[in-house]
Structure formats: C-alpha cells, structure tokens
Write a structure and sequence with these properties.
Blueprint: E1 4-6, E2 29-31, H1 71-80, E3 82-85, E4 97-100
Antiparallel strand pairs: 1-2, 3-4
Length: 102
Amino acid sequence: FGAVQENVIFHEGTRNVDYNNTTITQNTRVAYPLEHIKGAKIPAVGGHPKNIFFLVCDAYGVLPPVSKLNSLPTKYHFISGYTSKVAGTEMGITDPVATFSA
C-alpha cells in the first residue's frame, strides 16, 4: 500500500480510511514514498536552502508575523515546535491554547 497514516480509523473490515471519523483527531498526517509523486526529483538531494519560511499558528504573538532570523534562532524555533491550538482545528477548544508539538 505504501503509505503511513497517523491517527486514523478504518472502515470496519476494510483498509479504507474513514476520513469523516474524528474519534482520535480532526487532523492527521501521512507519509509516502516520493515515487508516488509525479515529477518528483529522485534522488531527492539538493543544496542548503537560502530562505526558510515557518508556517505557524501563533495566537499569542510570540513569533512576529515576519522575521529575518540567522541559523541559531531558526533552529531553536524549529526544534521547539511552538504552536497554538485554536477553535476549528482542535476538538473542545474555544480559546487559543499555547502548546509545543516537539
């Protein structure tokens, strides 16, 4: 089958994921081989990036909307995994809650 999915429920007696079932979570992740992506560059090897953009859910303004960081704070913010749980993405959340995903 070739994919690894996280926090999903299958339709009983099948290998088909029930994406409408939110028993575990409303969000899930999946990993699959690059060969499943049409036009993927294989081997997936490149140089070091010049620019990195963080897409974060920061309901408290801990991270500024736009920043130019050198390598040390970039590594820190990536490893710390700071984010916010917000209504609409987390069950039972009505007000933002700061959290760390790392």
